[in-house]
Structures are given as structure tokens and as C-alpha cells.
Write a structure and sequence with these properties.
Largest sheet: 3 strands, antiparallel
Shape: extended
Structural class: little secondary structure
Radius of gyration: 17 Å
Number of helices: 1
Strand order of the largest sheet: 2-1-3
Number of domains: 1
Oligomer: single chain
Distance between the termini: 15 Å
Strand content: 5-15%
């Protein structure tokens, strides 16, 4: 259970907190909530809101996981090798707060 909209602790901007895993919206009839979730996902996944990186050797991509919907895409593991490294910054975890709380 979590809010549908959260406030970014760094810049104060509201951000949707949803994904394909969301099943309903608390306080709404199930079908109405599912229709709203579908409409929101359909909107935010339009091409003008997506970024797909075309990798070249030496690239580094950094993003704020609190503010993105992301998904792995298939690739040909027989032709390509991937080197993935993760960095987590320590300190204040910067939790989002629910908008309106």
C-alpha cells in the first residue's frame, strides 16, 4: 500500500508512484480505479515521455529511481555482453512524502 502521488524530497515536485503491478486505487470502485490506472500508464508511457538509451562504449547513465518507471528490454545475450554496476549514495534516503499529507 502506498500513495499514488508522492512529493520528491529534493525538488518538491509531485511524482506518480505507479507501475504495471498496481491493481486498484483505495477508496475507488475496483473497475473505476483500474481504468484510471490504465489511463495514467497509457499517458506516461507515450513516446514523448520515454527515454531509450542507444549505448556506445564508455556510456554512463544515471537516473533517480524515485522518479522513473523503468523496465528491462530484451537483448541478444549470445551477441552482446553487458556490464552493469550499481551505486547507491549513502546518507538521507530522501523518502518521498505522500502529497496532501
Amino acid at each position: 500500500r502506498h500513495p499514488l502521488v508522492r512529493t520528491n524530497p529534493v525538488n518538491g515536485r509531485p511524482a506518480l508512484f505507479l507501475g504495471a503491478h498496481a491493481s486498484h486505487i483505495e477508496g475507488m470502485p475496483i473497475e473505476e480505479g483500474r481504468a484510471l490506472l490504465k489511463a495514467l500508464l497509457d499517458h506516461v508511457t507515450q513516446p514523448q515521455f520515454r527515454y531509450r538509451h542507444e549505448w556506445t562504449e564508455g556510456d554512463l547513465v544515471v537516473w533517480d529511481n524515485r522518479c522513473v518507471l523503468h523496465r528491462a528490454t530484451p537483448y541478444d545475450s549470445t551477441r552482446y555482453k553487458r556490464l552493469l554496476q550499481r551505486t547507491t549514495v549513502s546518507g538521507d534516503p530522501g523518502e518521498f512524502s505522500a502529497v496532501g499529507r
